[in-house]
Design goal:
The protein is of the alpha+beta class. The protein contains five helices and seven strands, in the order αβαββαββααββ. The strands form two sheets. It has a five-stranded mixed sheet with strand order 2-4-5-7-6, with helices on one face. A two-stranded antiparallel sheet has the order 1-3. The longest helix has 22 residues. The protein starts with a helix and ends in a 9-residue tail after the last strand.
C-alpha cells in the first residue's frame, strides 16, 4: 500500500543534504539480507542534495531486485553499486550477475504491475522510475553484453557543493 501511495503522490521531493555513502550502506543492509559485493562511490558523490527518504527507497528496491536476480542464478552472488557525479547529477548504477531482465519486462520498461517473479507485485521498478523522474532524472534498464542486468538511476541536480 505504501508503494502504491508513493506512486500516485505528486509532491515535489523534500531535498536536503545527506551523506550518500552512509545511505548506500544502510540500503545494502536493508535489501534482501544485505549483500552488496562491491560499493564504489566516486569523488564528488559523497554528499548529495535530494529527498533522502525517496532515494533510500529507490536504492533498496534496486539493490533488492538485483540481489534476488543474482542469487537466483548463484546463491552466494552479490551486486555492484556505483555512484558517480556527472555534471550536477548523481548517477547510480546497480549491476548484478543474474540472468538479466526477461524480454517482456524490458519491453514494458517500468510499467506498474510488471514483474517476472511469482511473488512480485511489479511496483518496485515503477516506483524507482517515479522517484527519479520526480527528481528531474530518469531510470534506465538493460541487459549488458557481459551478462546480468544493469539499472542506471539519474538524479538531477543532486551533487551538493562541499560545505564551507
Amino acid at each position: 500500500i505504501t508503494d502504491i501511495l508513493e506512486m500516485v503522490r505528486d509532491a515535489p521531493p523534500a531535498r536536503a543534504r545527506f551523506d550518500l555513502v552512509a545511505l548506500l550502506h544502510e540500503a545494502c543492509e536493508a535489501a534482501n539480507d544485505g549483500g552488496c559485493t562491491k560499493l564504489i562511490v566516486e569523488a564528488g558523490a559523497h554528499t548529495v542534495h535530494a529527498d533522502r527518504v525517496a532515494i533510500r527507497q529507490l536504492l533498496i528496491n534496486l539493490i533488492d531486485n538485483a540481489l534476488r536476480s543474482a542469487r537466483g542464478h548463484h546463491p552466494e552472488a552479490g551486486v555492484e553499486v556505483t555512484a558517480r557525479p556527472e555534471g550536477g547529477d548523481l548517477v547510480v548504477q546497480v549491476r548484478d550477475g543474474g540472468s538479466g531482465f526477461p524480454r517482456q519486462i524490458l519491453e514494458r520498461r517500468f510499467a506498474p504491475l510488471s514483474s517476472s517473479r511469482p511473488d512480485g507485485l511489479g511496483l518496485g521498478l515503477a516506483l524507482c522510475a517515479r522517484i527519479a523522474e520526480r527528481h528531474g532524472g530518469s531510470l534506465h534498464a538493460e541487459n549488458p553484453p557481459e551478462g546480468g542486468a544493469l539499472v542506471v538511476a539519474r538524479i538531477a541536480d543532486a551533487i551538493a557543493e562541499p560545505s564551507r
